[in-house]
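Weekend entry, working from home. Most of the wet-lab plans are on hold until the incubator is repaired, so I used the time to fold the two sequences that have been sitting in the queue since the last round of cloning. Logging both here for the record. First:
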Amino acid sequence: MKAFFKVLAKVNRLILPRYSKRDINHLSRLDKAVVAWRYWVTVHALD
């Protein structure tokens, strides 16, 4: 299962936009969902 999340994290890095330099309070609901998805995948890939 961990290998699946590592592959998914790599796909996320290639496809999804990065929000590291943007203020989280000024993001749209969709952008916040993308940030949450990336965070969830990253946490599961590191476990």
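Second, folded right after the first finished:
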Amino acid sequence: MFDNNVFKKDSCKNRVVDGQTVGFELETFITYYRAIPLSMVDDIQVKVNGEQVAREAITCSPNGQDWFTLDEMETVTTYKWEYNVPLKIRVAQEGGLPKGENDVELTVITRTAYIPIPIKGVNSRKVVV
């Protein structure tokens, strides 16, 4: 139902720090109709050209300033992922996305207060670097 929210269009780009490409970033909107605490994000998965990114390489931020690993997010109740505000996702990957066209797939799995099973949204985009 909310799969179009999963991967914000034109949000995926390489991340450069001090002249070095250290990974890439993308954004997602919540696949629910209201905000949730970060602790209710069950999982975020990223694939690039069919290859799964390691969970440990992914960090997320609800505000672009404070970043959490997926393991840390399991206990973060003081930050909320607000509806219609993108969650920022960073993937640590030396060299970032390869030059040319890449297939990037994003999976977001969340829990909510009123639905007894996790909500899973998946979307993929062609990203040209």
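Plan for Monday: verify the second prediction. The mean pLDDT is 94.
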